Description:
By secondary structure, the protein is mainly alpha-helical. It contains 11 helices and no strands. The termini are far apart.
Amino acid sequence: MSDHEHAIEQENAAAIAEASPEPSASDADIAPLEEPEPTSARRRYLIAEFIILFGGGPLLHYFDLVPLHAFLGLYFFTILCVTLLLFDRTFDRSRFLRIRGTWPHIRAATLLFLPLAAVLTAALMIFEPERLFSLIRSRPDIWLMVMCLYPILSVYPQELIYRTFLFHRYRHIFTRPWVMITASALSFGYMHILFHHWVSVALTIIGGYLFAWTYHRSQSTFAAWVEHALWGCFIFTIGLGWYFFAGRDPLPG
């Protein structure tokens, strides 16, 4: 290679190097870091934290020992969970609102929703026909408000807590996917003891499995939020919302 050709090659290499963008400080701050294996003491701490937050919190509300309305408690808990995630350098923040690639998961959730919703509607017609579409018939204004506000003010905070936060924070405790999904579903259903009716607990355990499975497959809060909002709006529409904001019958035992 001549000196002239060698000089041209060096100039090309320099131009390529200049054109290649270097990662900015902000990119480095956002990108998740590799995490070390937690110590046994850390694992014990996370187990205790999980029991206190997801076991003790709903129990305090159930016995009216917390001087906060349930919604205020939900928002306080959401702020706590999001803050912990934002300060966790191993957390991928794109999971908060990742939309790209979620359509196959949303489509699968919708296809599963259709037959299950038909079965639930038929069961309501058989066992409690007086409740069918009761909210629309009695208070269409309240129904419309629920359809507009419930997905944003209630569903999204719940998904941040019971899917995004729980899946990341306790991944070293519930190491197998089915164990994590079960922990998410059971804790989600258990939270609904504050409505004092076994129906709300049973329905949300089943829903919790569906939403947790969708989150596990998509790794997106958005996908689980869409599915949860779909089911929640359906529940209020057909008349089962009574068990989620006006239940009076106590839990058995």
